[in-house]
């Protein structure tokens, strides 16, 4: 869409599954609310599905000024074609200036299809969003209040800021867990707008016969204490130390990508740029070198304790407390001290 609507709304795609709102769009509300306020426009949330109107109230309580509700029996189950058609029609009608999606399986599938149809740009896996001004090099023109889409690039070795000044809506997917979950305000009032969409069975090229969804083995985003092990733990058997320390602290066991790739623990426990972004009160890194990709996933932790026998390990650069020593000696002592205190 070449027509740039600089007074358009900020949208968050309200992903739902079987009538249950996913966490990611709620997380996005906190940032999107600030973006909308900076721009002086309304924050809206389109929600698609069948019999999903009741979910609109929660979106309003979490910051939305307006909720566009699209209900249709053929939207009961997510399919790329039907959802992309419905979302594109809404975007074409209301012309938002920013549309945000969670970088979930659904968001990563849906957003590129809509970007292609709208001939708009899309930045994937953002870790931050800001509003700022930009002067183009070619003509020296100053573009005010653009969306700065910030994400790691080149394997996490640099942080890139991506902008789109001439083809809107400006669109981005945002990583799960990088935005804080807003506190709902039950006194907030907003507008619920019912929208219609024309769909036929031909818009659904697939027939869903059954759906099997395996729940994650651990909810790292909600954990207040996390104990994570890295390749330095040395082996799957030795990873028991990580589990034992997590258990005695009432925390969740986690791991770096290196530990997951080595088969020490399941991928559901992976923390970092390619895993889960976490923000616990306490994060204990055991035998983790601390590559920038891992640091990106733990930077919002309130306190980071690092245990490593390499005094030059990068993890010490972000740790609040540093323990240089053999984890096979340090961790058992920590477990003993915690149990004796209990």
Shape: globular
Poorly predicted runs of 5 or more residues: none
CATH superfamily of the largest domain: HUPs
Could you spell the SSE succession in H and E letters? EEEHEHEHEHEEEEEEEHEHEHEEH
CATH topology of the largest domain: Rossmann fold
Please characterize this protein's 3D structure:
The chain is α/β, with parallel strands linked by helices. It has two domains: 10-203, HUPs (Rossmann fold, 3-Layer(aba) Sandwich), CATH 3.40.50.620; 220-341, Rossmann fold (3-Layer(aba) Sandwich). It has helices at 23-39, 56-61, 80-94, 105-118, 240-249, 257-261, 292-298, 327-341; strands at residues 10-12, 16-17, 20-21, 43-49, 66-71, 98-102, 122-126, 128-135, 142-153, 158-162, 170-174, 191-195, 225-229, 252-255, 282-286, 303-308, 321-324. The strands form four sheets. Strands 7-11-6-1-4-5-12 form a seven-stranded parallel sheet, sandwiched between helices. The radius of gyration is 22 Å and the shape is globular. The mean pLDDT is 91.
Attribute tags:
342 residues; alpha/beta; 26% strand; seven-stranded parallel β-sheet; five-stranded parallel β-sheet; 2 domains; Rossmann fold; globular; 8 helices; 17 strands; 26% helix; single chain
Walk me through the topology.
Layout: E1 10-12, E2 16-17, E3 20-21, H1 23-39, E4 43-49, H2 56-61, E5 66-71, H3 80-94, E6 98-102, H4 105-118, E7 122-126, E8 128-135, E9 142-153, E10 158-162, E11 170-174, E12 191-195, E13 225-229, H5 240-249, E14 252-255, H6 257-261, E15 282-286, H7 292-298, E16 303-308, E17 321-324, H8 327-341
Parallel strand pairs: 1-4, 1-6, 4-5, 5-12, 6-11, 7-11, 13-14, 13-15, 15-16, 16-17
Antiparallel strand pairs: 2-3, 8-9, 9-10
Helix pairs in contact: 3-4, 5-8
């Amino acid at each position: 869409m070449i027509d740039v609507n600089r007074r358009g709304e900020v949208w968050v795609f309200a992903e739902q599954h079987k009538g249950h709102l996913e966490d990611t769009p709620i997380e996005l509300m906190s940032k999107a609310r600030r973006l909308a306020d900076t721009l002086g426009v309304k924050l809206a949330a389109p929600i698609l599905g069948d019999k999903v109107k009741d979910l609109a109230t929660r979106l309003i309580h979490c910051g939305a000024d307006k909720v566009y509700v699209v209900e249709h029996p053929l939207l009961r189950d997510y399919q790329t074609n039907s959802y992309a058609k419905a979302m594109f029609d809404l975007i074409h009608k209301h012309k938002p200036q920013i549309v945000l999606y969670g970088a979930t399986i659904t968001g990563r599938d849906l957003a590129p299809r809509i970007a292609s149809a709208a001939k708009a740009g899309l930045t994937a896996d953002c870790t931050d969003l800001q509003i700022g001004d930009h002067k183009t090099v070619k003509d020296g023109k100053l573009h005010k209040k653009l969306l700065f889409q910030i994400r790691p690039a080149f394997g996490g070795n640099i942080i890139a800021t991506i902008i789109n000044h001439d083809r809107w809506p400006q669109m981005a997917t945002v990583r799960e867990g990088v935005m804080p979950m807003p506190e709902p305000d039950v006194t907030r009032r907003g507008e619920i707008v019912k929208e219609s969409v024309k769909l036929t069975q031909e818009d659904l090229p697939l027939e869903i016969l059954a759906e099997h969804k395996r729940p994650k083995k651990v909810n790292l985003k909600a954990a207040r204490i996390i104990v994570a092990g890295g390749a330095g733990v040395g082996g799957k058997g030795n990873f028991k130390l990580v589990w034992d320390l997590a258990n005695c602290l009432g925390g969740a066991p986690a791991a770096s990508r290196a530990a997951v790739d080595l088969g020490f623990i399941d991928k559901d426990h992976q923390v970092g740029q390619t895993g889960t972004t976490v923000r616990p009160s306490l994060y204990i890194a055991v035998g983790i070198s601390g590559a920038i990709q891992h640091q990106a996933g733990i930077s919002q932790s309130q306190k980071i304790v690092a245990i490593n026998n390499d005094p030059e390990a990068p993890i010490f650069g972000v740790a609040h407390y540093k323990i240089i020593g053999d984890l096979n000696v340090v961790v058992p002592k920590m477990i003993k001290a915690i149990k004796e205190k209990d």
